Amino acid sequence: MEIFMLKQQQGYVLSKIGPHTYLLPYGQSIADQKHGIIINETGEFLWKMLETPQSMDTLITALAGHYHMDITALQLLSSTVPVYFLFSGYIPKTDILP
After folding, report:
1. Coil, helix or strand for 6?
2. Which domain holds residue 35?
């Protein structure tokens, strides 16, 4: 079984503006007309973890610890979370597919 490592998509920066947290494009991402998004506390937590490449298991374990949750429930997400990131465009295909 291969372990896929996830990482931050280059060209975005985490910014707090008022009460909201955003992932905002910069540099070539702006030229490519990429859009910024508002993220919640969980998104911010994951983005910060992805400063260095992480496996899905590591992310799930960290989320379970951060939110004091049963890891079993979060493990059910391990097959769907990469799909969300893939289709949102914030983690490129090459970072999660062989």
Report:
1. strand
2. 5-91
- Spatial separation of the C-alpha atoms in residues 27 and 93, rounded to whole Å: 20
The pTM of the whole model exceeds 0.85:
no
In contact, 91 and 85? CB cutoff 8 Å: yes
pLDDT tens for the 98 residues of the chain, in order: 557 788 888 899 999 999 999 999 999 888 888 888 888 888 888 899 999 999 888 888 898 888 887 777 667 766 565 545 544 445 444 444 44
Q: Is 19 helix (H, G, I), strand (E, B) or coil?
A: coil
Provide the domain count of the chain: 1
Within a domain: 97: no
- Cα–Cα distance between 69 and 45 in angstroms, integer? 15
Look at the block and give the residue holding tokens 């910069």: 26
Contact status, residue 59 vs residue 42, Cβ threshold 8 Å: no
Q: Are 12 and 25 in contact (CB under 8 A)?
A: yes
